[in-house]
Structures are given as C-alpha cells and as structure tokens.
Give the backbone structure.
Amino acid sequence: MACSCSSVPPQWRHLLSNALQANQHLKHSRYLQLATVRANGSPANRTIVFRGFVEGTDKLQFTTDSRSQKIHEIKFCPKGEICYYFTDTWEQFRIHGLLEIIGKSETDMNKKLIREKAWFSSSSKSRMQFAGPHPGLPVVASQDDHEPELDSEQGPVDCFCVVTLEPEEVDYVHLKDNKRWVYTRSKKENEEAYFWFEIELTP
Amino acid sequence: MACSCSSVPPQWRHLLSNALQANQHLKHSRYLQLATVRANGSPANRTIVFRGFVEGTDKLQFTTDSRSQKIHEIKFCPKGEICYYFTDTWEQFRIHGLLEIIGKSETDMNKKLIREKAWFSSSSKSRMQFAGPHPGLPVVASQDDHEPELDSEQGPVDCFCVVTLEPEEVDYVHLKDNKRWVYTRSKKENEEAYFWFEIELTP
C-alpha cells in the first residue's frame, strides 16, 4: 500500500508506457475496448484506437464520429471504462473515469487546439472515414461508392470529435506474474491536488 | 436486409465460427471483453475467456468466481455486451444480451449439469484459481503462499460459476472489407419462435 503525489507521473503510467513499448510490434497494440452505458441503462462495448495522452495530463485520447452511438451514450452517462489487454505481455489495464467530448462547437481554446492537432495527426485514410456516409445507417443499393475528397490542408470536418478519458481508477493485472494492483485517484481534505493511492490485490 | 428462421443457425454463428477457426493459432483468440453496469450506474469492462456455446443454444458460456465484482454487477443489471475482436482477421463482434449466473445454489437440473461439465472441462490450473484466496481483497504480507490442493475427481467448488450470455443483437464489423452487418433477434406477433433479422449498415 503506498501513495504518490500528483507532481510525479503515477506508477500506472510507467506500467502502461512499458506495455505499449513491449507490444508496439503488434498492429493491434493500440486497440482497446471502451464500455459506456446506453440511455436504457444497459452496457455498450466496442474497440477503439488509443491516440496517446493529452499533453501534460493523464487523460487518454481517442477520436470518434459525432454521428456514432457512443456520443449519445457519453452525453447520457459520461462515465466510461476501457479494458486494454496486451496480447504479448499478458497485461490488462482497466481504466475507469470521466469521458469528455471535444466537438466542433467547442469554445475552450485549449480544447479546440487538441481537436485540431488530433485531426492533423490522423492518417488521410482515417480522416476520410469522417467524410464518408453516416455510420450506422442502412446501406442502400444506390449508395454513392465514390471516395469522398478531402484537402490535406483542410481542418477537422464537422463530425470529427476527440473523446478524452480522465482516469479515476486503474486496475492493473499481470497474468504471467499473477499480480494485481489497483490505483485510485484521491484528494486530501482541503487540498487541491490529487494523489494516487495504490494497493496490491489478489487477482 | 433479410430474415432467417430460428431452426437454422443464425448467420452470425457462421461468421463467429469462421473467425474462431481462422484465429485459433493465437493464444488470445478466446479472449474477449465483457461490459456490465455497476450498481452506481457506471460501466465496468474486463477480459474474460470464451468457453463455447451452451449445447443446443446460441448462449455464449464463460466461467467466473462468485466472489468477483462482476457477479454483483450482473445481479444489479443482467444486461451485458461483449466485444470480441479477432486480431488476425480484423473482425469485431459486439454481442448484446441477457446474462445469467449458474452458481452452486442452482436447482435446475440442466443448468446444474452445465456447471459440472464446465468445471470438469476446465484445466487444473484454471480450477485452482477458484480454490485460491478471495479475488479483489488486499494482499497481506503474511498471506499463505502454499498452492491450494484439489482432488481432480472433485466436483465444482462453491465459488465456481458459469455465466451465460443470450444474444439479442450482434453487431459484426469486418475491418479489412469495411463491411458491417447487424443481426437482431425478433419475434412475430402471436408466435413463439424467434427469428434473426439482418441488415447491412455503414461501418
């Protein structure tokens, strides 16, 4: 059982960073599963791509289409839990926290910048998806198959969103070693800064 | 858009069966992520192992420990969604449905049998986990490190549970082909039997 103050990166960041490095030769090493809650209270789950951390924070970053179901779900319930399993090193990170959407109507300058940076650092193939037809609608026979065109200098299209996850709890399991650690973000009374409380649990 | 009657296996079963076969050389090909809802209404997500279908049904089968958090979550909200991503063939199955727990106090004879069969078809290493200390409790320094002992003839230990997922909707995406199909279980008015309604959607 131990505490770490907020000015140093929490221990789980080191573990995640090591896992990313050790698995980076795998195409799917950036794929993880995000669980959200639907408006009817039942869960949803899908694979998304980890796009790194928001600079200077512990927030995980993803991109998505404003027309996708997960946007509605996040608006209904802003809590999410990702499950990130690394297939080569047998490590699992379950990260629970607060989801935030940064969309086209964002007014905060820093967040607008995060969205723009995320757009320009996406591949052209990835950007093209956002210029395509509405995801989740029926495919009709007459549908226009022509590739949409996008100027490479053009900023984010309207439906391009960044989703961030601000971790509150990280549950780490190392299957090979049969070890489990849980990291919980906490605040001391009358103090502003967060710290991470860590504890070893039976797997 | 098409319908299939309930007497033939639904199309998604063929797709899943093919994906399992095409990825079977990978150790993690039976690993998937199950999302549930916590008692506070926020989502939970973790990796579990697919243990095949309950004989003669479309129910997916898993095993778990009655002392794990997911049991409490399923009791609170019996809906679940698995996300099953096949890393070699780039296929994703999101399967949403009703979760059921088959535990030691089960009285239905068929379900008792499912639990016993699941126990005896588990590896001895896997069985040993259920004889170990309470999962999710703090590790204490004085903890007994001795391996628990289990007679190989012995039936399921008390905390051994089977969890089944009865699919209501299957959302299938083939990333390489950029194709998406959604299969929804439906019932016609005044009819007992289910059928599967299928529709192609934009990914």
